[in-house]
Design brief:
Elements: E1 3-7, H1 37-46, E2 50-55, H2 59-69, E3 79-82, H3 94-103, E4 111-115, H4 118-126, E5 131-135, H5 142-146, E6 152-154, H6 160-163
Parallel strand pairs: 1-2, 1-4, 2-3, 4-5, 5-6
Length: 166
């Protein structure tokens, strides 16, 4: 596996747990990564897997969120793509394709997409990613995710390194 893409809010305690957004799009409360996420990202990157996050959030929300987590491109992530930076968001594949461009990945058979919504799974299929994972850290149920035919359903993103044999 050469490339993993997922969504910004999948790595933190969920949209509802971000503490809400204060006026001016500042974070009202400091978000915290879900258990195992920093270790999973580190394991993937140390194995040479490029990690990109995609989000429907605007940069004015995404950048402070990542900063509050201490996650930086080049240190913790290889790329971040916001929906406003591409022609269309999910379920279109544009964010995934842009993440591939930013990380130098051209072979879609090496792409793994993980997300906790049906739209994430649809975007992964639209991008023709070989591995499309539904994760159960969001509001959608296993049955709702399964209806979109992901290749795997995991309890969380933290399980991806084990799935890949790391």
């Amino acid at each position: 596996m050469g490339f993993v893409t997922g969504t910004v809010h999948r790595a933190v305690r969920g949209r509802r747990d971000l503490g809400g957004l204060a006026p001016g799009c500042g974070l009202a409360a400091t978000p915290h990564p879900l258990p195992g996420i920093p270790e999973a990202l580190a394991a993937l990157r140390s194995a040479g897997v490029r990690v990109a996050l995609t989000t429907g959030f605007e940069r004015q929300v995404t950048d402070p969120l990542l900063e509050s987590l201490g996650w930086r491109i080049g240190d913790h992530l290889d790329a971040v793509v916001c929906a406003s930076e591409v022609p269309a968001g999910r379920p279109e594949p544009h964010m995934i394709h842009r993440a591939m461009e930013l990380t130098g990945v051209t072979d879609r058979t090496t792409v793994l997409v993980a997300g906790d919504t049906a739209l994430d799974i649809r975007a992964g299929h639209a991008a023709r990613a070989t591995t499309v994972i539904g994760v159960l850290t969001g509001a959608q149920t296993r049955d709702e995710l399964a209806a979109e035919h992901p290749t795997h359903i995991l309890d969380g993103v933290h399980q991806i390194p084990a799935l890949l044999g790391m």
